[in-house]
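Could you join me in thinking about how sequence relates to backbone shape in a protein? Would you write everything just below, so we can both look at the same thing?
***
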Amino acid sequence: MAGNIEKRSRIASIDALRGLVMIVMALDHVRDFLHVGAMSFRPEDLTRTTTALFFTRWITHICAPVFMFSAGLGAFFWLNSGHTKSQLSRFLWTRGLWLAFLDAVVVQFGFRFSFGSGPVILNVLWALGWCMVILSVLIHLPIRILAPLSIAVIALHNLADNVNPSQFGSLGWMWTLVHQPGLLPIPGATVVVAYPLVPWFAVMAAGFCFGPIFNLDPDRRQRRMVGIGLGLTIAFLVVRGINIYGDPVRWSSEIPGMTVLSFLRCTKYPPSLDFLLMTLGPALLLLAGLDRINTYLRRANPLMVFGRVPLFYFMLHLYLIHLLAFPLALFRYGRAGFLFTPAPSMGGAANVYPADYGYSLGVVYLLWILVVILLYPLCLWFARLKERRKDWWLSYL
């Protein structure tokens, strides 16, 4: 009995962290759909951004690394709940293919409410799915081999930053899938790979290898997480400070008042070593803190609710944000047909949208809060449904 309570306690910490980043993720997507600046420039553009806008984007960088790392942790827990490696392998590759399909079809439709308008951008669910397929093979390696292999890929992949798809000739598309974002040569379609698989698969594998730490007693695992989290954070400050290796974009003090932002502007596509140190270090510190207070986190707590149904939340929040854009557009512009094409921030043509389309950052934050509030009862209902029923298909949602 005590063992089951302790197991639920460990999983609760991960659910709470995942729920927290799901909430933060919605802010980034509200900004993508509705912020006036998203229509014309990226928030990381230090020549045009503001501090508030930069950090609105920057805090959401934690999301993708936590998705990948926690998926690996989840695989470890699934294995240790009475399943065999063969069963886990089958679950990973089938769910992985399902996630890749959802990204290419359901998520794309959510961005534009139509098919055939604008490019198909393969995003985080696509990468998450294929990383699961890769992990379905890697789990058969001993952790003593998989752990250093994962760390090596994360630490060394920036050595390949100067390798371009053109160097591989007709096989260049494979390098686009592996390491450098870009277009896939698919006749009749524009397909953009935003999330190459290296080093994301290694982050997921590292999460799997991190699993045994959660088998320690609470005090020991919390100390271990704090130690590793602080170590990664300090490593980020050192490696980024040296400014020689770790990110293809060096920081500088050339733009007055932007030195700190330049230091924090690390490359996400693909995630550089600096980017992963900057995000995974604080993520582990957050996980340690949530693990310390998890007995106070009730199952109806929004963090717990959203963290237990992350895929359901992910799909729902995209459609809800897009739907909210329609009445806002009708009220302000008297028309909303342009919302059936992707926004410029998502690869769409700028001349389709009104020249002054978008809202202030304050409005974006208010709409973000509204989105989270509206999502809560739906996600609570689905979380309770998953508790009551054990149908196999629910494990794929």
